[in-house]
Specification:
- There is one protein chain.
- This protein folds into three domains: 181 residues; 66 residues, no CATH class; 189 residues, Rossmann fold (3-Layer(aba) Sandwich).
- Helix 2 packs across helix 3 and helix 16 runs antiparallel to helix 17.
- The chain is α/β, with parallel strands linked by helices and 452 residues long.
- The strands form four sheets. Strands 5, 8, 9, 10, 11, 12 and 13 form a seven-stranded mixed sheet that branches. Strands 1-2 form a two-stranded antiparallel ribbon. The chain has a two-stranded antiparallel sheet with strand order 3-4.
- The chain contains 20 helices and 13 strands.
């Protein structure tokens, strides 16, 4: 939160300097409106390092200009938020703009600020908005309310499952599961047990993982066993969570974006009703999955007489053959450029599996390492993509973005609402390369796996 506030302040102050402290036409500077006057005074106060008066702060939120709204929000403090006029202005702003088709940064910022303030009216009004705002805004609100564990918010979060978009959006479904799982109480377990019994793929795994954390039981993907156990034990106290047990809790990266927490998928294998495909020994729970594979020249290097590329294609062939028929998948390889098998996911039919394996076997290592384009291609293969399995043996040194941190920031931003789990496999990764892969997975609901 602090990093986002600093970033917003920097952006706003830079914008003020750039425009010479003059209102832009879209602020209504030609017309001497209340919001325009307030915004002008607010800029002047900021330039002089003075605090915002409440009236000017409220005026900024009424401005049609995103720059001005961010300027006002950057000046909010817990103290100013105790003012009833400020509270009403911020909540009213969220209510007005939460239905906009394009989610503005000012709306995200306003929700984040509101969610951290202990005020029963705020939690109630934000919770009520979950039923009416755009799904992306609902995702932000659910994250904020559940992270702060606002009392009474769980009912509103669970009610998101009644929205038509719930069945259509994997990102929304995953958000509801993770937000609900932050409440260690019977109502949360009710929803999670119902979900693990009715869901499939990566969502089923994530739900089962949260249930194991909350209850101390380990029935994995066996929904009927969870249901039977809960019917008997619902009235018993739930175990107290271990210190630091925040699985699924959003954290803040350098950009301030909501990020995911590693689910430890490569740890003890979870009981499952059927045999799962594996990639480098890691179970593949997802039913919508993209494999993004490094084929740069360094993949020709050998370990114990077997080249990294030959090992990778062997692993690809094995996992593709094992995909269930109701799965969907695609394959992307990258060096200096991207080689795509299918732009979008296709059903895991026998014919498609044979074609994908043939495609992979015909490739050969060459060129440099364009990690960003490979990741972006895989991530955009489907709007409901559940998982990306990303394999690389070197640092990014080609493509439109080569700075590792910048790649993490860009991909995390693109994945903010889709919520695809990005599982990174580092071949002999060290130093910056390993840290890049760890950050990429930890901030995108995945996990880093070291391989040789």
């Amino acid at each position: 939160m602090k990093s986002l506030a600093k970033w917003l302040c920097a952006v706003c102050v830079a914008a003020v300097v750039w425009h010479g402290f003059h209102l832009r036409a879209q602020d209504g500077s030609a017309a001497k409106s209340g919001p325009a006057k307030a915004a002008n005074r607010a800029r002047t106060a900021t330039a002089k390092g003075k605090p915002f008066p409440v009236k000017q702060l409220v005026g900024c939120l009424k401005s049609p200009a995103e720059e001005t709204r961010l300027l006002g929000l950057s000046q909010l403090t817990d103290e100013t938020f105790q003012n009833a006029a400020v509270t009403e202005a911020v909540l009213g702003f969220i209510e007005r703009h939460g239905k906009d088709r394009t989610v503005a940064m000012s709306v995200v910022r306003a929700i984040q600020i509101s969610g951290r303030v202990e005020h029963p009216e705020i939690a109630t009004r934000l919770g009520a908005l979950l039923a009416t705002v755009e799904p992306q805004v609902a995702i932000i609100i659910a994250d904020v309310l559940s992270s702060a564990k606002q009392p009474g918010a769980i009912e509103s979060v669970v009610a998101l499952a009644e929205r038509p978009e719930f069945a259509k959006s994997y990102g929304l479904r995953r958000t509801v599961v993770e937000a609900t799982a932050r409440y260690t109480e019977p109502a949360a377990v009710d929803f999670l047990v119902s979900t693990v019994n009715s869901s499939d793929g990566q969502l089923k795994y994530e739900t089962a993982r949260h249930l194991t954390r909350i209850t101390g039981q380990s029935f994995g993907g066996w929904g009927d066993k969870w249901q039977a156990w809960w019917q008997v034990n619902r009235s018993n106290p739930l175990p107290k969570p271990a210190d630091g047990d925040t699985a699924g809790t959003p954290a803040q990266g350098n950009s301030g974006a909501t990020v995911g927490v590693s689910p430890s998928i490569a740890g003890a294998k979870m009981p499952w009703p059927h045999k799962l495909p594996e990639f480098y020994g890691v179970p593949v729970y997802a039913k919508k999955v993209a494999f993004v594979i490094d084929k740069s020249r360094s993949m020709e290097s050998s370990v114990e007489g077997v080249s990294r590329w030959d090992r990778a294609t062997d692993e690809l062939e094995k996992v593709i053959k094992a995909l269930p028929n109701d799965a969907e998948f695609s394959l992307f390889a990258f060096d200096t450029s991207i080689v795509t098998w299918k732009v979008n996911l296709v059903p895991a039919t026998d014919e498609n599996k044979r074609e994908a394996i043939y495609f992979a076997r015909r490739l050969a290592p060459s060129g440099k390492t364009d990690c960003y384009d490979g990741l972006a291609a895989g991530l955009h293969a489907d709007g409901n993509l559940e998982a990306v399995y990303f394999l690389s043996d070197g640092e990014p040194n080609s493509g439109p973005i080569t700075d590792p941190l910048a790649i993490v920031e860009a991909i995390t931003a693109q994945n903010a609402f889709q919520r695809t789990g990005i599982f990174t496999f580092g071949i002999d990764a060290r130093g910056i390369h390993e840290e890049f892969l760890k950050q990429l997975s930890a901030r995108n609901w995945g996990e880093y796996i070291s391989v040789r």
